[in-house]
Every structure is written in C-alpha cells, then in structure tokens.
Amino acid sequence: MKFMNLGSRENASRYVAVEMFKEIHFNECTLLGLATGGTMEEMYQELVELLKRHQTDISCLETFNLDEYFNLDISHPNSYMSYMKKHFFDPIGMQNSQFHLPDNDLFDVEEDNLRYDAAIRDKGPLHIQLLGIGVNGHIGFNEPGTPFDSKTRVVELSPETIEANARFFDKQDDVPVQAVSMGIETILYSNRILLLALGDKKADIMAKLYHMTEPDIAVPASSLLTHPNVEIIMDEAAAQYIT
Ligand code: F6R
Q: Taking the CB of residue 29, how many other CB atoms lie within 10 A of it?
C-alpha cells in the first residue's frame, strides 16, 4: 500500500483525475468502480475537463458505483444517482446502459444485489476502483466489523456515518440510516485501487491506517493491505499526523 501526500487538495484531486483519465483515454473499454461524497467533487470536475479537452471516446466506458442510499428515490437530489449524473455521467454524456449503481428499492433487493456482484464478476476485474474513506475507516458503506468476504448487500449506517452525511440533508430525520453497498470482496476484485482522502477530518484515520501492518475488520480500509496495487492519495491536512 503506497501512501502519497500530494500537499494541496487540488494536487491530490488532480493526480487521481489524471490516473482515471489515462485509463479511460488509452483503453478501449474501461471498467471503473466509482465513489461519491464531498471528497470526489473536484476530482470529477477535473476528470470531466480532461475527457472533454482530449475528446476521449467514452462510448465503451462502463462504471459500477460503490453504493446508494437504501429506499431513497433515485431522483432525490441527495441520491448517489443524482450526484453521479450531476458530477460525471451527464457532463460527459454517458448513456444509461453504461453506468450501474446498486439497486436500492425494497422490491427484490437481494436478487438485485446478487446480480450486481455477478455483473462485476463477469465483466471484471475493474480496471480502477476509486475509494473515499469514512472517519471510522469505512470503504463504500462497509462499516467497522464488516467481514472481508462481504458482497453487495443492504447495510445499516453507523452513527458516525449518519452524522457525517447529515451535512447534505436539510433535516436530521431525512438522513438515510441504511444503504446498499458493494462488499469488501467485490471492492477488492479490481486491478488497481485509488483511495482519495482530503481534509483534517480524515487525519486520524489516515494515521491509524498508516501504522497498521495486519488487516483488522475493526478498520474496513485495512482490508486493502491484502490487495497488491493500492495507492492512498492524501492532501497535507489528511496526512498531517503521518510522520
Ligand atoms: C461514497 C462512499 C463513502 C465515502 C466516504 C467519505 O460513495 O463510498 O465511503 O467515500 O463516506 O465521504 P466524504 O467524501 O463525503 O467525506
């Protein structure tokens, strides 16, 4: 696992955007695992600009997102579908058939989750899996205690995650308490993993992860120690306790 402190937020976001861009631009049919959240906004902005500037052919690009809030209308402005359409899918003109998010309605959710994993297995491995990280070390919405062989499923969000997500909602009661998340096993089924961590709030968990030598289910991101090709990209604020 390679830890990289790239100084500014802009540099860290740009590094990830350029790596994603190269994969899409130079590969005919790229398969990506995508993340949402505040951390990714500048990265997507940069990536969209790069793809447009270089007139990259994205007709064969296919993406699988990590997660979606459970039982929240996908047209809701805070759904991850809305986030992805706003920040990435619509600006580069992706067709509906090219992107996938876990199905989040009550109806047949278990079968849909099995289908999601099967689609990734059939088409994969993902060329790049993009990750953010929660203050408690979650990746996707795999909260502390999640087994490393977990698959896509409905998950209960932890109190820390609900609190962190509350900033995107007007009322506390509206903040979702459940999500559908790609499992850790599914996340690890990828050739390369880029984890982006920005800002002071991530400093404690980054220092903790940096000092871990063995995977421990109490810190889901430590499952990445079992993967051969992981880069952890940080700004100075997130890396401040790593010496
Ligand atoms: C989102 C996701 C989450 C976020 C994490 C950090 O798709 O999988 O693991 O990456 O909660 O969120 P932000 O970037 O808002 O701090």
A: 11
Instruction: Estimate to the nearest angstrom the gap between the alpha carbon of 241 and the chain centroid.
Output: 24
Domain layout of the chain by residue ranges: 2-239
Q: Which atom of ligand 1 is nearest to the CA of 139?
A: 9
pLDDT in the model for residue 240: 98
Ligand 1 pocket member 48 (CB < 6 A): no
CATH fold of 2-239 reads Rossmann fold (3.40.50)
Tell me if the pTM is above 0.90: yes
Query: Is 142 known to be catalytic?
Result: no
Confidence check on the interface: ipTM exceeds 0.85, yes or no: yes
The CA–CA distances, whole Å, from 205 to 54, 119, 142 equal 36, 32, 15
Q: 227 an active-site residue? A: no
Regarding the beta carbon of 136 and ligand 1, being less than 6 Å apart is answered no
Residue 28 has pLDDT above 90, yes or no: no
What is the average pLDDT across 32-39?
98
